[in-house]
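I hope you will forgive my troubling you with a question about protein structure. You will find the record immediately after this paragraph.
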Amino acid sequence: MSDHSSLFGTYMRIPLRFERGEGVWLITEDGDRYLDFATGIAVSSLGHSHPHLVAALKDQADKLWHLSNIYEIPEQTRLADRLTEATFADRVFFTNSGAEALECAIKTARRYHFHKGQPDRYGIITIEGAFHGRTLATIAAGGQAKYLEGFGPKAAGFHQVPFGDFDALRAAIDDNSAAILIEPLQGEGGIRQIPKQWLQDIRALCDEHGLLLILDEVQSGVGRTGKLFAHEWAGITPDIMAIAKGIGGGFPLGACLATEDAASGMTVATHGTTFGGNPLAMAVGNAVLDVVLEDGFLQNIRDVGLIFTQGLASIADRYPDVVEEIRGTGLMLGIKCKCPNSALQVAMRDQHLLGVPAGDNVVRLLPPLTITAEEARMGLEKIDAAAAIVSANLAKQA
């Protein structure tokens, strides 16, 4: 393989070339099999080559791929109706990605206040350590210097407060504030969970000050935590929510969901998309929901998630020099490392297990939602073996 690539140099790629996938497994060109607890960063929610998704895509591919949104798209209406029936929302706008779903959410919140005669209310309050995407608006919303550097002035109207500091959040509200934007469970930030009480207090704070609550459930949604959406654990509802990743099962698909009132400013020609909501994406999105909404599916995620948390707690007890803390819920889990997280990541890969690095020195585990108890235990054995190797290496260096 040539050292030269015509691609942008924005990724430090791992030298693995996968040819196909089967359920929880990825298979390289050489036939090596890897347990995939990365799933394209929580995207391949039903694993690889899921027969129902494959059939839905093939069937639609024979009919119609793309239409402009200037025409009726029946499967789009059907998916929107199913999403609103299953959630707090009354309205849905389909996008191609999480970043676009967040852009739509931000625009919806700002347009809401404009529509209500308060155009100066455009400020969005966010949490430090958040990740909301790679567009100019969403890197400003995330506020992390490493993503902002070199891209010109930070887009105006975003204010970050420290994680877990409710007083700072309250103090950040002023006459220009339009919304609070948070991830119920931070993914890139290191599987950092917003406590249930804090989510409830933020909902009350938004109601008190006439702010909209925007939830970023791009990574935590569509069953990942064992509820259809992570905010359900706290018994609250947002006004606007961005989703993506898992809803497409590997096909590029996102959506912005909103209440009737929150979406009231998004009238004809205020927003649009060329590819969003096309027939191919809608066929796959509906197929994903067919599976995720089946009786017992979410309960199985909770059951297998418990196997993981118990197994990971045991690994943490045995290797306290490697593991500092186990984080997360359902099948959105994180291992906060005492050693560099890259050491555990590489050791896991040597055991033919794939994870995902995250902030705060964490290795994320994001297996397919279809994973079985047996496959979970197989993964735990590989993590245990990897931790043992890292621990032995640390002992040698001491």
Remarks:
- Residues 52-292 form a domain with the Aspartate Aminotransferase; domain 2 fold (CATH 3.40.640.10).
- The chain has two domains: 52-292, 295-371+380-397.
